[in-house]
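Incident log, support desk, overnight shift.

02:14 A customer reports that sequence design results differ from what the structure should imply. Their input is reproduced verbatim below. On-call engineer (initials T.W.) acknowledged and began investigating.
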């Protein structure tokens, strides 16, 4: 083996995993498109979120392409039964087969296929694909982020006023905040993964949420933003760690470092009170 090549638990070079992940996610996107616009009707899961035939088909496809190709790696997916043996694996695939199922079912374009490879609790590879927009986002730890092969970077913004922020409508006007927010521009996308990808690509400045998120929502997107020069934490400012027994994150703040600091100064107080 070439000197200096990173390997996983089974001696697998990270570059091989990167190629495997990119190919699988792009092929999964084409599979999802074969269902798109066919008038699918979603059903409701226990947590009242929608799931469709397409979600399950993409989940099966990615499991076959990724998990079966790397049997020593763990697997965590929104649409798969959670298996405790993932906690013993050094490397774990964390997957959201279709993030933004509501948009998918409504015939809207803001949905993605999202997958990450996590090593020792931190993402090392990320692939996010929006097939309708022909946008493939990728990141590798220490190597930067790219959109369709071209390097991307978060906006170097250091002021709240005028910032383009992904946040639920009305969130910044709620009475939970200790001081009023300056005027900002509220933007939106159905897929949380896509929101963070757009920040990494410089099309928005920040994402903010004070509600609990799942690891599959954030594993790939967090690496993408970080490798594009941004910072991503939970709403209290704590660093994210993945592949935990309960795979949830307490809120989200993502932005360039200076803007992130300004946002966390506000969300940290709310997080402490609400125990999100």
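02:41 Re-run completed on a clean worker. Output:
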């Amino acid at each position: 083996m070439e000197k200096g090549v990173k390997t996983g638990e089974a001696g697998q070079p990270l570059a091989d995993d990167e190629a495997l992940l990119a190919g699988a996610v792009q092929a999964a996107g084409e599979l999802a498109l074969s269902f798109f616009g066919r008038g699918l009707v979603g059903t409701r899961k226990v947590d009242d979120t929608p799931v469709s035939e397409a979600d399950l088909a993409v989940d099966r496809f990615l499991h076959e392409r990724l998990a079966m190709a790397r049997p020593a790696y763990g697997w965590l997916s929104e649409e798969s039964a959670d298996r405790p043996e993932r906690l013993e694996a050094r490397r774990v695939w964390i997957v959201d087969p279709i993030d933004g199922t509501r948009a998918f079912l409504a015939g809207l374009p803001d949905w993605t296929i999202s997958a990450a490879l996590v090593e020792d609790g931190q993402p090392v590879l990320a692939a996010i694909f929006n097939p309708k927009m022909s946008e493939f986002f990728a990141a590798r730890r220490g190597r930067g982020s790219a959109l369709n092969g071209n390097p991307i970077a978060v906006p170097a913004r250091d002021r709240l006023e005028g910032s383009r922020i992904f946040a639920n409508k009305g969130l910044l006007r709620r009475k939970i905040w200790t001081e009023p927010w300056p005027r900002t521009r509220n933007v939106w996308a159905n897929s949380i993964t896509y929101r963070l990808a757009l920040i990494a690509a410089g099309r928005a400045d920040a994402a903010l949420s004070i509600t609990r998120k799942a690891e599959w929502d954030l594993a790939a997107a967090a690496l993408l933003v970080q490798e594009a020069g941004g910072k991503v934490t939970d709403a209290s400012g704590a660093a994210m760690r993945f592949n935990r027994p309960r795979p949830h994150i307490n809120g989200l703040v993502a932005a360039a470092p200076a803007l992130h600091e300004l946002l966390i100064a506000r969300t940290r107080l709310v997080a402490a009170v609400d125990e999100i």
